[in-house]
Design goal:
Layout (H helix, E strand, L loop, with lengths): L1 H9 L2 H26 L3 E6 L3 H14 L3 E4 L2 E5 L3 H10 L23 H20 L5 E9 L13 E8 L6 H14 L8 E5 L3 E3 L4 H24 L4 E9 L4 E29 L23 E25 L4 E11 L1 E4 L5 E4 L3 H15 L8 E7 L15 H5 L3 H27 L37 H11 L1 H18 L1
Parallel strand pairs: 5-6, 11-14
Antiparallel strand pairs: 1-3, 2-3, 4-5, 6-7, 8-11, 9-10, 12-13
Helix pairs in contact: 2-10, 7-8, 11-12
Length: about 500
């Protein structure tokens, strides 16, 4: 304690202020770091809740006396109690699901409920059940489902059922498979609803278009590429084959009606034979003509008689001509043309002298690989499909970057935040010890300077108290003369004052 007091008295005002400020700063830093080290790590409890539901969750946390933080629409609690709080809040029905399903129909009674009211409640229940099902998806934060079901009227033109689904995702976006699955989910739950009549809307990105031809072609190409890659690499080895597939899909609905008639192929299906015969006689009597009015042809005289006979045969044969009617409908998404290119690496050969050469693969092997690829992709020559298999030497690609390895902290499963806090606390304590405590504890007691004889041999008188020269602790040396020289060099003004006082005292003595 005496050392600290002596050291404090030896400091000037500027150094005293520096020591006070540094001590206060270190003390505050230690308090802040200690608070950070002892404060709990906050973890996400719930996010994306409606304001009313968030209020209920916060009220339940207040009743339990749990510390929490609200950041936007997210609620954070102590990481060690997060799972426990989720279980206990779920037991109380929190967070409450705002979407209601078929329980809406429980409150409808037969009295006072019209058919229109029941239909409205039924569609609300249907929308709520679909919303509950969609909320099961991990990345779906909130969802609303709307179904437009037209009223059935006797003499009105029937209208189709449509639906829309509005989603808000917690992260990322929906994949093509998820979008198709969502459309089929809604369409399967509503009678008369087709998947293409379901609109999917992302609240952050807008309308999600239907599975277009480009996306369908890319997906089909990836599937075929993966299948061909596995098939070819089973023969040439992993990394020795490169496969590229191009798929051209039909973009519009195509309908073709074809009718063919074969005139050389006919079959008699019925025969109708008719035979008509008859005889007639004409004597000429009773006919009034110019000749009968002549005197020579008076009535009563016999005339010429004519006879005729007729025989007719008719045959009608009905034939059926062979004809073929073909109607072909090609829907969008079907393959119009398929192109496949396969590049395989040459064969590596090690010579007896140790050198390495590359030899192209034989044509017979390439033909076999081509047949396998055609069988795998469903090759159709009439459709215009093309499959090309070639062999060339692969050039080695330089490696880029380094392989990622897990860090020591990740392997030890340590909390990086806690380690950083402890390290900062240790660093502050070290700095405090080096800058403040070490000089206070290491500075020895100050010793008075020894009396040095004057040049004339007389002893130097003790200087006045106001003119005393106080050396620093690091200035203490063994030789008194060297000590005096060092003090004079460092504090010349004070040494001059001491000399003046000595000279004045000698004059008064004389």
């Amino acid at each position: 304690m005496d050392q600290v007091t002596t050291f404090w008295q030896a400091l000037d005002m500027r150094r005293r202020i520096i020591v006070i400020l540094s001590s206060v700063a270190m003390f505050v830093a230690i308090l802040v770091l200690a608070r950070m080290a002892t404060s709990p790590t906050m973890a996400l409890l719930f996010s994306g809740l409606d304001p009313a539901v968030s209020g209920e969750v916060v009220n339940a946390l207040d009743q339990r006396g749990v510390a929490y933080r609200v950041r936007g629409d997210a609620i954070y609690v102590d990481a060690t109690r997060r799972d426990e709080l989720r279980m206990s809040l779920a037991q109380e029905g929190l967070p409450a699901n705002t979407a209601k399903g078929y329980e809406l129909l429980d409150n409808l009674s037969g009295f006072g409920t019209t058919a229109r009211m029941f239909d409205a409640a039924y569609w609300r229940a249907k929308e709520g059940e679909l919303a509950r099902t969609i909320l099961i998806w991990p990345n779906v934060r909130s969802v609303r489902v709307h179904i437009a079901s037209p009223d059935k009227r006797p003499f009105a033109k029937p209208q189709k059922v449509t639906a829309s689904v509005t989603l808000r995702l917690s992260s990322g976006r929906l994949t093509d498979k998820q979008v198709r699955g969502l459309r089929f989910l809604v369409a399967s739950a509503v009678a008369g609803l087709m998947p293409e009549d379901v609109a999917i809307i992302d609240a952050d990105r807008g309308l999600i278009p239907l599975d277009n031809n480009n996306a369908g072609a890319d997906r089909k190409a990836r599937e075929l590429r993966r299948s061909i890659q596995q098939l070819v690499e089973a023969r040439v080895g992993p990394g020795n084959a490169v496969v590229e597939v191009s798929v051209d899909l039909i973009r519009q609905k195509e309908k073709t009606v074809e009718k063919r008639v074969d005139p050389n192929s006919r079959v008699a299906i019925s025969t109708d034979n008719r035979e008509v015969s008859g005889n007639s006689t004409d004597s000429g009597a009773g006919q009034v003509t110019v000749a009968s009015n002549l005197p020579a042809n008076k009535p009563g005289k016999g005339g010429a008689t004519s006879r005729s006979s007729r025989s007719e045969t008719r045959e009608i044969v009905n034939y059926e001509v062979s004809q073929t009617t073909r109607e072909m409908v090609r829907l969008p998404g079907q393959i119009r043309k398929l192109s496949v290119a396969v590049l395989v690496n040459n064969v590596k050969i090690t010579n007896p002298d140790g050198s390495i050469t590359w030899r192209p693969r034989p044509e017979q092997e390439l033909a076999t690989l081509r047949d396998l690829v055609q069988s795998a992709v469903g090759f159709d020559k009439a459709r215009g499909d093309v499959v090309t298999v070639r062999t060339m030497k692969f050039e080695p690609l330089p490696e880029r970057g380094t392989r990622a390895v897990p860090s020591l902290i990740s392997r030890l499963s340590l909390d990086a935040t806690a380690i950083i806090k402890a390290g900062l606390l240790a660093l502050v304590a070290l700095v405090l010890g080096l800058t403040v405590l070490r000089p206070l504890l290491a500075r020895p007691a100050l010793a008075a300077p020894a009396a040095t004889p004057a040049a004339e041999g007389s002893a130097l008188p003790a200087p006045d108290a106001g003119a005393a020269v106080v050396p620093d602790a690091h200035d203490v040396v063994d030789d008194p003369v060297a000590q005096l020289r060092q003090i004079i060099n460092e504090r010349q003004d004070e040494a001059i004052e001491v000399l003046k006082s000595w000279i004045e005292s000698d004059e008064e003595t004389a």
